[in-house]
Amino acid sequence: MKHLIQTSIVTLIISTTAQAAAPIFLDVATSPKGSTASDMFRDIGRVCTNASFLRQRQTSGSVENLELLLGNQVSLAFIQLDVLKARDQIDKDPRARELKQLLPLNFDEIHLIARRPQQKKNVFGKVTTVGAAKFSDLKGKKVGTWGGSVITANVLKAKSGVPITIAEYRNREDTMNALAAGQVDAVLSVVGQPADWIKTLDANRYTLLPIDIPTDRVNGFYRQATLRYPQLGSSVPTYAVQRILVTRDFKTPEKRAALLNYQKCALSKLTALQETEGFHPKWNEVTFKESDWPWFR
């Protein structure tokens, strides 16, 4: 009997230890492969190898990420701040305010891409320019977009008062194909510069349009920025929106510990993230101090 009791105690200890040692895996919604969010998730994983066990879930972007987080399908999500604010302030969804930011990250620029304006002669020989030169020229025109950029396009439409028609597509490829085919007059994309796919656009066909909306109309959502793609138009005025890593306000001790370990490691490794060759250049703009959303503590 004594031997049986001792064996049971040892079995219980081993079982308890095994359970305690089992890692907590957290799913993280990023964005498609090659996106700023996906690259930054990769970079943090390389400098915080033992902080927590995180699995990437690549998505279409911020809108899908927010739905996955609110639907308890992931524990963390990279989300544009305007998408989060729109859900809170415009949609009045009380669940949005319950979310917490684990890390405030970089600012992604709004890229407004259009076909390069063309000069045409009418029957009388008069030369006219066909095409948009700035955001306000898109009045009554159609703008294609996808993912979290759909929210950005709607916010700019509302804030500016410019009556554009917003056409939502499944992904970047479909949207750019629509622009090439003349089905939309411009494409709006929120992405951290320099974006490789924008750098490779044919400068003879495409250009970047300035976003000429007064600053006081977009305060609270965006800050001023400048696009620098020499082949598409140097020093193009635009706006940028912050991307943050968001989580729910979890209470489970094991999950809180995993999240706080990941947060602590990332905060302590900013210099390594900024100076490691091959890491995303947007790390050089991150301070981990700029914040406009409640922290996970």
UniProtKB/TrEMBL annotation:
Keyword hit for Signal: yes
Keywords from the UniProt entry: Signal
Signal peptide: 1-20
Source organism, top-level taxon: Bacteria
Protein name, as recorded: TAXI family TRAP transporter solute-binding subunit
Taxonomic source organism: Deinococcus antarcticus
